Amino acid sequence: MQIYDLGDMEIFVSKLEMGEVTAYKSPRGVREWLAKPHAQASAAVFEGECESLLKGLPESSVDLIVSSPPYCMGKSYESRRDNLDDFVANHQVILPEVCRVLKDGGSLCWQVGFHVLDGVATPLDFLVHEIMSKIEGMKLRNRIAWTFGHGLHCQTRFSGRYETVLWYTKGDDYAFDLDAVRVPQKYPGKRHTDGPKKGQPSGNPAGKNPSDVWDIPNVNANHLEKTAHPCQFPVGLVQRLVRALTKQGDVVLDPFCGVSSAGVAALHEKRHFIGAELNPEYVQLGLERLRATLKGEVRFRPADRAILEPSPTSIVGRRPPGFASSIDMSEAMVSS
Ligand SMILES: C[S@@+](CC[C@H](N)C(=O)[O-])C[C@H]1O[C@@H](n2cnc3c(N)ncnc32)[C@H](O)[C@@H]1O
To answer: Residue 244: left if φ>0, alpha if ψ -120 to 50, beta else—which one?
Structure first.
């Protein structure tokens, strides 16, 4: 590792086989990094507020922005005072800036969940879309439901098991590589029933469109990607976006990068990465993960890995006496 101290700019460089991972404390450093050509799969992580990084980046300079901003849910990295008004006020500043640095034809994927206060839920993507719909040229392509099997068990409302990713493109001439993200057909044996192809398989052998509902386990305590961050992206979630919406050598930006999960996906797919993160501990963990990615040592769960159902004979799948095997709805049907 080389360490440079250039006045306001501190640079830690770790040169690796495929590219390099560099940490900056000044937006100027990242701007200069971006202007230089890079070997495949290089990353620059800015330690500081993304607002100042974004101001320092030139217009139309990145191909994909994927991020999950702070939600005002009392996570360790959030201010206790933050509320929905702050969420909206911060987004009114951030969203026009991220759209400014996005290239024409590029994509913005903004991942949020719900703000819940005293049992009252507010879908944060409603607030995001309200602002986005006023930014010229930005068009919503999908509202992806990201579903997952684990989370808090609620007693007074249904337990929350999905969040959303709003995917916008800047303009109409945008990149979308469906073939890079196809998933195996559900009914591969289905055949044409008439016409010239009668009897031949009717599905695309390369797989089907993954749809806008993505069941990908969230990163809980037992997940193989778990770090000290309380709510990191599963790498597979970003991997699918990176593959579909960019090509090799493109630049992916995450302005709230946490432990650089988006960067792991970007480097793994041979794209460049720029991240911003306030918390120095997360910056360091992210740098370690990025370097491990370049060395081919990172482990993550790909998006298309099937969700395992516990076998009824396994310890956790075996039903203790008295546990319901199905829910009897017959009474409800009779009395309705
Ligand atoms: C929801 S988390 C994102 C986690 C990330 N997707 C990952 O996989 O690790 C939001 C992150 O934004 C960081 N953050 C909050 N305000 C910030 C700001 N103004 N600039 C940069 N980072 C900020 C927090 O420290 C936190 O790590």
So the answer is: alpha
- How many domains, the chain? 1
CA distance 145 to 110: 12
Asked if pLDDT for residue 70 goes beyond 50, the answer is: yes
What atom in ligand 1 is closest to the CA of residue 71?
A: 1
Q: Do 223 and 234 form a contact (C-beta atoms < 8 A)?
A: yes
DSSP summary character for residue 315: T
Residue 7 lies in a domain: no
**Mutation probe of ligand 1 site: the residue of 57, 76, 261, 277 with most atoms within 8 A of C-beta:** 277
**330 sits in which H/E element:** helix 330-335
Q: Would you say the CB of residue 292 lies under 6 angstroms from ligand 1?
A: no
Residue 282 belongs to some domain of the structure:
yes
pLDDT, tens digit (0-9, with 9 covering 90-100), for 206-219:
999 999 999 999 99
Site of tokens 């491990």: 292
> How far, in Å, is the centroid of ligand 1 from the Cα of 33?
22
Does the Cβ of 68 fall within 6 Å of ligand 1? yes
**Per-residue pLDDT tens for 302-334?**
888 888 788 888 888 888 888 888 777 666 555
Q: Does the beta carbon of 73 lie inside 6 Å of ligand 1?
A: no
Confidence of residue 99 (pLDDT cuts 50, 70, 90): very high
Of the candidates 284, 299, 275, the one whose C-alpha atom is nearest the C-alpha of residue 66 is: 275
Q: Looking at residue 168, which CATH number applies to its domain?
A: 3.40.50.150
* Domain assignment of residue 4, yes or no: no
**What's the pLDDT at 312?**
85
In a domain? residue 134: yes
- Domain range enclosing 162: 21-316
Task: Find all residues with CB under 8 Å of 36, minimum gap 6, and list them.
Answer: none
What residues does 21 pair with on adjacent strands? 14, 43
Ligand 1 pocket check for 258: Cβ under 6 Å: yes
